[in-house]
Specification:
The protein contains 4 helices and 20 strands. It is an alpha+beta fold. The chain has a 6-stranded antiparallel β-sheet with strand order 11-10-20-19-16-17, with no helix packed on it. The protein has a 5-stranded antiparallel β-sheet with strand order 1-2-9-4-7. The radius of gyration is 21 Å and the shape is elongated.
Length: about 270
């Protein structure tokens, strides 16, 4: 919960507020009165779609949410819950009015982001995130992928072809584990201890990859890529950008792009 004593005033009506991991910033349907900018930590944005609560996005430092409350006095259309300890800048209507007058370019950027989010939400609701009918849902009941210590730099065993992701400019290889399953792609979080199977942090000089960016699912000799939540810098299979929650098949030889990092999906036997 936020503590009024921890607020540091940055202006007459704007404050930094702090939340512990798992705190609810606001609930879908709540009356709205402020927007927030993430100074540190991560915030999950969730919305109830049908009988399920769907994770729409995980926001990190520099991103904002709740801006619709300043544009129209309607109940919250989504919930916000902290994934980790967070420090947020709370902006109330009076400060927003000042921002409109003094920094109109910032407001235009916010409106463009809002439009993008609304389009993505429409796409998520219109497309059920399912694998093709002849492929089982690997996100339920599949065996967890081996940990990095087991997988790293090991080829596939039992005669299965070795599959790797190759970052050409740094000559870095990431071996995918043999057998059906899934691997997470992102970057390590030293605060929470989160460690993806494919950690792109060391080769992502501009920090364009989210901590929990995407996953690669394997079923026999077929591969599928899914960006589970909206990533600010996107996920591509070839030239096609993925919609958050949608699944796209990838084949050997395809270029996969996570943020600004391009990787080639290929057989390990093809490496020199």
């Amino acid at each position: 919960m936020k503590d009024a004593d921890d607020r540091g005033a940055t202006g007459r009506d704007s404050y930094f507020v702090e939340f512990k991991a798992g705190d609810v910033v606001f609930q879908e349907g709540d009356a709205s009165r402020a927007m927030y900018i993430v100074e540190s930590g991560e915030v999950d944005i969730l919305r109830r779609i049908g009988s399920e609560e769907r994770l729409l996005a995980t926001l990190e430092s520099g991103e904002f949410f709740g801006e619709m409350s300043l544009l129209e006095a309607l109940p919250r259309v989504a919930s916000a819950r902290t994934r980790s300890d967070c420090r947020l800048l709370e902006i109330e209507p009076e400060v927003f009015q000042t921002l409109i007058r003094s920094r109109p370019e910032v407001v235009m950027q916010m409106l463009r982001k809002l439009s993008e989010r609304l389009r993505e939400l429409s796409d998520i609701e219109a497309h059920t995130p399912e694998l093709p009918a002849d492929v089982a849902d690997l996100s339920d009941g599949a065996e967890a992928a081996p940990d990095d210590e087991t997988v790293a730099r090991e080829g596939a065993e039992g005669g299965e072809p070795s599959i790797v992701l190759v970052h050409a400019s740094s000559d870095t290889r990431f071996d995918l584990p043999p057998g059906d399953g899934e691997v997470t792609v992102g970057r390590a979080d030293t605060v929470t201890g989160h460690l993806p199977h494919v950690d792109l942090g060391p080769i992502d000089a501009w920090t364009t990859v989210s901590r929990r960016h995407a996953k690669i699912m394997r079923r026999g000799d077929r591969f599928f890529v899914m960006e589970e939540t909206r990533s600010a810098n996107g996920t591509w299979v070839g030239e096609d950008r993925l919609i958050a929650g949608a699944v796209r098949e990838a084949t050997l030889g395809d270029t996969l792009r996570f943020g600004g990092v391009r990787l080639l999906l290929r057989s390990g036997e093809a490496s020199s």
